[in-house]
Amino acid sequence: MPINLSTRELRAFVTLADERSFTRAAAVNHLSQPAFSALIRGLEQSLGARLFDRTTRSVELTAEGRGFVHAARRLLIDAEAACDDLQAHAARRRGRVAIAVLPSLAAGWLPPLLADFHQRFPGIELDVADVLSDACLERVRSARADFALASTRAGAPELRTEDFCRDRFHVVCRRDHPLARGRRALTLADLAPHPIVQLARSSSVRQYLEAAIYPAQLRTMLELDQLSTVAGMVRAGLGITVVPSLTLFHFEHDELVARPLDSPGLERQVFVVRRADRGLSSAAQALYELLLRERPRAAGRRRQ
Amino acid sequence: MPINLSTRELRAFVTLADERSFTRAAAVNHLSQPAFSALIRGLEQSLGARLFDRTTRSVELTAEGRGFVHAARRLLIDAEAACDDLQAHAARRRGRVAIAVLPSLAAGWLPPLLADFHQRFPGIELDVADVLSDACLERVRSARADFALASTRAGAPELRTEDFCRDRFHVVCRRDHPLARGRRALTLADLAPHPIVQLARSSSVRQYLEAAIYPAQLRTMLELDQLSTVAGMVRAGLGITVVPSLTLFHFEHDELVARPLDSPGLERQVFVVRRADRGLSSAAQALYELLLRERPRAAGRRRQ
DNA sequence: CGATCTTACGGGATTCGTAAACATA
DNA sequence: TATGTTTACGAATCCCGTAAGATCG
Known about the structure:
2 copies of one chain form a homodimer. The first copy, chain A, has 11 helices and 11 strands. Chain A is of the alpha/beta class. Chain A has 3 domains: 7-90, Arc Repressor Mutant, subunit A, CATH 1.10.10; 95-164 and 269-293, D-Maltodextrin-Binding Protein, domain 2 (3-Layer(aba) Sandwich), CATH 3.40.190.10; 167-268, 3-Layer(aba) Sandwich (D-Maltodextrin-Binding Protein, domain 2), CATH 3.40.190.10. In chain A, strands 3, 4, 5, 6, 9, 10 and 11 form a 7-stranded mixed beta sheet that branches. Chain A has a two-stranded antiparallel sheet with strand order 1-2. In chain A, helix 1 crosses helix 4 and helix 2 (22-28) packs across helix 3. Residues 299-304 of chain A have low confidence and may be disordered. Chains A and B meet through helix 1 and helix 4 of A and helix 1 and helix 4 of B. Chain B binds a DNA duplex through helix 3.
């Protein structure tokens, strides 16, 4: 049967050691003097050791009590620090949120939302992993991320997947390009005659695109690694390109026009993935709700 | 109004985090399940933060609670260590006693008593300063010693002086020396014709002796620093010596005889000196009582 | 005699355990 | 339905504050 000990008792003990008077220490602790006396007596009794040598005129720590004071002070400080820390985390004054987000979302859509979040909760550390879908899932599974925005469902049973938004593909071309005229959505057939500037085969967007239109193929004329370079090439009139709508911010330029591309199955689904067995921290929950509230609505109509 | 927190609550919290079941955790804490549930609820309420996500089928820590577990475990360990330490000190299983004792007492009378003490309280560290009287008092005043056995009263008001024992002087000579015959106490007049082997003028014994017999003087023929050397000289027949009875153990030898020396005022008083404002530690009190119980009774009759 | 700690005691809040209600897999 | 948590409630306990008692300077 282990001992019981409360911070109230420790505080009483420490103040009595400081004040060396039951009357004053009782006042400090907002107790009547007899109640305070009983509190100290109870503490001594449960500890099994005298802490004070008291006569009616003087109250002094015993040698053993003198040693215990230091431990009591430290215990009080540690306990208060632990409570403060807990409360700060619960109140989102401190904490850390780690998320894993597809690069296409992380670059254009996410930054203003993170800025908003940081302004509302300046004490929260943020950790964004802008990695591909599988890496996103792995981060959540290994608890290195609180949740993820990925383009594949999670297979593991400890992960829970929910729909987040849909990402349509768009054709981007120069304003003076034949495809720039007209308002209706384009089809794969419309693209056939035109050479296309694409991302490298290693990119997930390219892989997704090719898988979605299979067995049809696009007329690739140039492969690049960075979307911003693709934009430059398209602006220079080297060709057109096809990209997910969430990356269109790379192509916002007067000389360029984006038109939606309609094709069966050519629509990338984005998911929210989180652990099924544990809830989100208070801070993570707040970011989660913000992102869900501000999620991309209709692909292609988003404006900077 | 600072928060209150008890080890009982922390233990309940930690066991629930471990067991992940109110029923099992309640059993561990020897409480009915509803009472245990109320305990946790009260803890969450006073902390102002949810600690567990509970459904009827599962109990899991919240993210904030997960952080608090570590702090709680450490707090429990620290609190228990502090209590154990206090109890060990009170029970004299641990601790430290520092005393300051006149060299004459420290060398002969003290050792067997310290051995006895150490056997009864093997966990108590002992620190004996075998220094002269003024240094003894200084050690107590500066709290480097719990108490002291000294030959001068303390002047400082924060020190309390009490009688400890009286130390008579003895004449030591060879068994074949003229002074060895007879049983009565000797007087200064008896010593006059005989050359004397003495300690150096810097020694307190020598100073005390000369002050006590002033204006009379002894016929010093040889001065030495160590009492054991004095003993050797006396055994070799170089002369006689005069020493406090408490140092007679240096002279216990078949060839030597000790006879008390009677002279007005020639009696060294030994005092116990301790701080007036604070009590002794439990361990120091035990040693204090042992030394008082075993203090040298009648000078000169003490046997090894 | 005055200041201060301890003891005595009645009232109120807290906490406990039993029993019933409620919720999920 | 079965397991496990929460709610309801009477009883025991604990704790507080007032008042009286004891003790030392």
